[in-house]
Specification:
This protein has 273 residues and is α/β, with parallel strands linked by helices. Helices cover 33% and strands 21% of the residues.
């Protein structure tokens, strides 16, 4: 994609996207609205498109939001039930969805597709294809797209190096790797920390297997929950939305903030989650 799209890897990235969307809306009119394109309809892409639509609706801004996915359906890891629920919510928020045609190139003002006509844009955010930090490109370890190959004990080819999260490809057997999600990273981090201590003491390392506890997706101020488990108990409804899903999504975010800071700080952030 070159240098043209925004990416979303840090707080500064998010602030840059916000400022560019705000500036594009300021220069747009109802007859000539700004176009914000989000490339990649995984979790990050869906939630980013939802946030842009939320900004548009809250400020009554002249913005068209377009979500692009190369594969035939949005949220490729999901089953048809959650894909349908997400598509319904996105279209309800007036987000245009383009699928089954990959983006092949991007210039400073338009996107090129394999088959479709070029699409002009004012802001382009790229969330497709998970890559690790650029610093890992020169590391002398087995890696793919800056993501280090790791065994199920989180150890890489160098026994002194453990990897979790977006910088890892953790073996899960049968040629599968753990998904690049916050939920997986959180689970793996606990095992990695314990294994660092075990390695120092020359004790056997624990193995880790990803435990899928469900999916929580925000689309602006709404949320969808799918196959969610709370304390090991599955929710009575497989896919649900509205207020219960929103509270569950905010609760999960608050729990994460509390784990790395405190519950008092998490509660102060509740309204912004």
């Amino acid at each position: 994609m070159g240098e043209h799209p925004h990416t979303l890897k840090s707080l500064d990235d998010a602030l840059d996207v916000h400022e560019d969307v705000k500036a594009a809306a300021k220069d747009a009119t109802r007859d000539d609205p700004a176009t914000v394109v989000v490339g990649g309809a995984g979790l990050s892409g869906i939630q980013s498109a939802g946030e842009v639509a939320e900004f548009r609706d809250r400020h009554n801004a002249p913005i068209d939001v377009v979500l692009v996915e190369a594969l035939p359906e949005i949220f490729p890891p999901g089953d048809s039930e959650i894909q349908g629920a997400l598509r319904h919510r996105l279209e309800e928020r007036d987000i245009e969805i383009l699928t089954d045609d990959p983006i092949t190139a991007a210039t400073a003002d338009h996107i090129e597709f394999d088959e479709r006509e070029d699409l002009a844009y004012d802001v382009f955010l790229w969330t497709g294809g998970v890559t690790g930090p650029s610093e890992l490109a020169d590391v002398d370890l087995d890696a793919e797209h800056n993501r280090l190959q790791a065994s199920s004990n989180l150890q890489t080819g160098d026994e002194r190096v453990f990897a979790v999260g977006d910088c890892s490809l953790v073996d899960q057997g049968d040629d599968e790797v753990a998904p690049p999600t916050a939920q997986a990273a959180w689970q793996a981090a606990d095992v990695a920390a314990e294994n660092v201590a075990r390695a120092i003491d020359d004790r056997p390392l624990r193995t880790w297997t990803y435990d899928d506890q469900g999916t929580l997706v925000s689309i602006g101020e709404t949320a969808i929950a799918h196959d969610v488990e709370v304390n090991g108990v599955a929710a009575p409804v497989r896919t649900f939305n509205s207020t219960p899903a929103k509270l569950l999504k905010k609760g999960a975010a608050a729990r994460w903030i509390a784990k790395i800071t405190s519950w008092s700080r998490a509660m102060k952030a509740w309204d912004a989650l």
